[in-house]
Amino acid sequence: MANQSKAPIYIAFSWILWPALFAVGLTGAGLAFRTSAPLLWFNVVYLTIVAAIAFLERVMPYEQQWLHRDGETLNDIAHTLLNKGGVQIVAAIGASAPIAIATVARPIFSSPAHVWPDAWPIGLQVVMGLIVAELGLYIAHRAAHETLSLWRFHALHHSVERLWVVNTGRFHLVDSVVKIGLSQLPLYLLGAPLPVFLWIGAVTAFIGLLTHCNIDVRTRPLDLIFSTPRLHRWHHSRVLAEGNTNYGENLVLWDQIFGTYFNPDRRPPADIGISGRIADGFLAQLLQPFSASGFRQILGRKADVDSLPPPKLGRQRQD
Fold first, then answer.
1. How far does the chain reach from its first CA to its final CA, in angstroms?
2. pLDDT in tens, 67-108
3. 272 close to 162: Cβ distance less than 8 angstroms
4. Distance (Å, rounded) from C-alpha 32 to C-alpha 43?
5. Using alpha carbons only, how large is the chain's radius of gyration in Å?
6. 198 near 98, Cβ under 8 Å?
7. Rounded to the nearest 10 degrees, what angle do helices 173-190 and 73-96 cross at?
8. Domain coordinates in residue numbering, the chain
9. Torsion angle, CA of 93/94/99/101, rounded to 10 degrees?
10. Among positive and negative, which fits the CA dihedral 75, 145, 250, 67?
11. Which of 105, 110, 141, 192 could disulfide-link 247, Cβ–Cβ 3.0 to 4.6 Å?
């Protein structure tokens, strides 16, 4: 559409689109959780939002060049299914055996003082759960950028040269396990109930889709609270000072507190990626971080791993 960026209706639509998609996703998740097959119907809602985002990426893209194929679509889907599928299997076990969790897991992980505020409305419990889980996600994400032993796994996610809905779940399995452990274990220790875990999972799922979308959305006020597409585009920058910022998965509270929030008044870069090289093929990408040669390829180094400088290298700028 000609001059669509200047059309008032286009501008208005770009302002309401992010919160509208997020609200529709959460509403659908709430309805799914009330059914006898919550995971099945949640996936129906999730895939519906994926389809809507994929359509909108074609109608009103943020970056035209990100519409071009990069040869990684099948690998992106495979990593998404492995990571999201694994999470859903765990969730399915928890949803189908709450008695087992209550009688076995809770006595092990829960605090004797019963810290969790069960009497609070579920909405407030979810907000509290998000803040707690976000601290673990922030620590895991920042460590993955500042520690070489973790960056080798996280680099897979940053190796993409375009952002779009399909590579939302492009994470190495080890990277995902670390993030899940650090974010969920504190909730178990505090005694958070199963509905809190389900709602946090829903929030994370839909914000993840929206964070990586290639849609021309405007989110300026929301940038101060949520992890938005604009903030995450800065996070994927090749420039170290720009890319090692905005670690929040859902919220940017901990970025604000620890000084890693970054949102300058200019357009985020379209040229994204890493200086190293990720292997071709799904299985090769899973195995690459475990070998010394694969580690060197990921870092873009010819030297031996043992001779590398200390952590906090993150991503290097590619000249």
1. 35
2. 876 566 666 666 566 665 554 444 444 333 332 333 344 455
3. yes
4. 9
5. 20
6. no
7. 30
8. 4-307
9. 110
10. negative
11. 141
